[in-house]
Structure formats: structure tokens, C-alpha cells
Amino acid sequence: MPNNGGVGSMSLGGGASSSLDNVVANAVSRGIVMSVAAGNSNANACNYSPAREPSAITVGSTESSDARSSFSNYGSCVDIFAPGSSITSTWHTSNSATNTISGTSMACPHVSGAAALLLARGVSAGSVPSTMVNEATNGVVGNPGWGSPNEFLYVS
Questions:
Q1: Do 78 and 45 contact (CB within 8 A), yes or no?
Q2: What is the distance between the terminal CA atoms of the chain, rounded to a whole angstrom?
Q3: What's phi and psi for 52, nearest 5 deg?
Q4: How many CB atoms lie within 10 A of CB 131?
Q5: CA distance 69 to 73
Q6: pTM for this one?
């Protein structure tokens, strides 16, 4: 029986790896909503894992102007864009440390949080990706990149 309440966030990536893709697909098949970073190579996300795994929500990065971040991967494997440039977050150097950094690894947690909100709203895990894209703001991402959707994260 699938668990319909979990969210996984993978702010990592690398070359194509069927093993890594399978880890993500197996989590999704067990009812976990998986958001994954698209990657930071200004290249086609379909060439990277786990960004290429179709069952995951693959997240590209935007700047404060809502334009795609210059480093963000793009393409048909990207599902949605979220803020990922100059994001301040906690940091590993102490319990009170923060750091301001950029990357699709900073955009991915925004989508994970949105997924948790949708689950709390009663959306099933299997419907979270399509609901998220349906609720996204369309057409505002500047230069989303060849083959990318022009969908910016928004949850009502």
C-alpha cells in the first residue's frame, strides 16, 4: 500500500545514471513526491540524473527578475521553475550560520515545500506534479531555454 504523505527533495545531480533514476522512480511508486534539481550546467536537463527521471518534479532556477538563471539546465525534462539565485538559507558551519548561494539546489526546496502544502490540502501524491504545474504561473519565466515549460511555481 503506497504512502501518500511523503516529500523527497534531491538537490544533487550528475551524469546520466539509471541507478539514481531508479531510486527516484521507486520512491515515487511508493507514494513519495520527489522534487529534483535540474542541474547547473546551462544544458539539457535530460542528460543528467536524477533530473531526467520522468516521475520526479524537475526544477529549474530563476533570478529575482523571473528570468531563467544563466546556469540553470533547461529542456523538456524540466517541469517547473522556482527561485534559485541568491537564496539565503541555513548553512553547515554552525547552528546559526546562513549563506547566500545560487543553484537549482536552492530552487528545488521551494518545490518540495509547495508539494507538502498540496499534500496537506488533500491532493494525492500521484496528483501533486500535475496540480503543481496546473497552478503555476504560465508565461513569466524569461528565456526558459529550448524545450522548457514556461511555468513558474505558485500554489494557491
A1: yes
A2: 29
A3: -80, -10
A4: 18
A5: 9
A6: 0.95
